[in-house]
Amino acid sequence: MAVIQRLMVDRFRNLEAVDLMLSPSFNIFSGINGSGKTSLLEAIHVLSVGRSFRTHKVDPLVKHEQKDFLVFADLGEQGRIGLLKSRAGKKELKFDGEQQGNWQSVAAALPLQVLNTESFQLLEGSGKIRRRFLDWAVFHVEHSYLDDWRAYRRGIAHRNSLLKSGGAGLHAQLDAWDVELAGLGQAIHESRTAIIESFGALLQAVVGELLPNRKITLGYKAGWDSEQRFARVLKELRPRDIKYGMTLNGPHRADFTIKVDGVLATESLSRGQLKMLVCALKIAMGRFVERSAADSNRAGRGESKCIYLIDDLASELDRINRAKVVSLLARADAQCLFTAVEGKDLDLDGELTERSRKFHVEHGKIQSYQ
């Protein structure tokens, strides 16, 4: 079970010398805008997956006039993770004292779901965002999936380079690459399809609690006519790929639609309802990974439980809907880190209050209070 027992953050944006003992349940960080609340959640996200949810650049993450930042999390029996990253991008990532070449083991040990203003992009943004959301689940169910996806992306990049360059022997070279890509692409498609089918029922149950009497339909698009094997598509559509200098079909073009009562969610729901649907998607996916990991654990493959990072839940949600989300997360028995301008924006009942820890954030400093 992933629970951050102790969190240390230093020289990350405006945060300095942060050292916190967290509750395994709810943790509420309150303070005015710009105090460092979101930066704390961002630091945890960077530790887990190696990138920010706000920027692709490293430089803005390092505190002014500092050369690097530090983030450390003690997960108890699950291990300890530390990241030291310089403004120039040089990193030192350790998991239980062992140097890590990439984030694969760390991401598996520290699964996160983020709920913030950018989460609306899951409904309104490009297919890349929804693919990433789906692939997060596939990775936590099948850790080997990441290797397949990386190999596929490398193969597509090489194939696209060949398509652009042309030249003698092009078809023979494409034949060789297409054999590998066909197998990888088909495997990725089948893994994603299995997740979508299993996830749909769980999502409907969660939506039933947050948006009662609404029917949710997920429509998966493979990135090609999935009635055909991917190998055949690569071969038959090669002339068009050569014309445009890129691979126009495949798992890298996959997407899925989200309909509510038969209509695209973005066309039928209000802004507040869309936020409730985003909450449902994130919470349901966390539950899905947890249940899948529990099944794997019975087979001796380990355990996983999602941590939720929730930035400004009060924005665009009334008190009744906030209470629904809080209640759902409480019953999930997961660790949650909330931010709010004022602590009273999150109304907790007596039991939750006893299990929660509250922190005040001001000018990059964080203090516990009750």
TrEMBL record:
What's this protein's name? DNA replication and repair protein RecF
RecF/RecN/SMC N-terminal domain: from which residue to which, for each copy? 4-342
Per UniProt, what is one GO molecular function of this protein? single-stranded DNA binding
Gene Ontology annotations of biological process type: DNA replication; DNA synthesis involved in DNA repair; double-strand break repair
Q: Where in the cell is it found?
A: Cytoplasm
One Pfam family this sequence matches: SMC_N
Q: What family name appears in the similarity comment?
A: Belongs to the RecF family.
**Record-level GO cellular component terms:** cytoplasm
Q: Which organism is it from?
A: marine sediment metagenome
Principal location class: cytoplasm
Which keywords does this Swiss-Prot/TrEMBL entry list? ATP-binding, Cytoplasm, DNA replication, DNA-binding, Nucleotide-binding
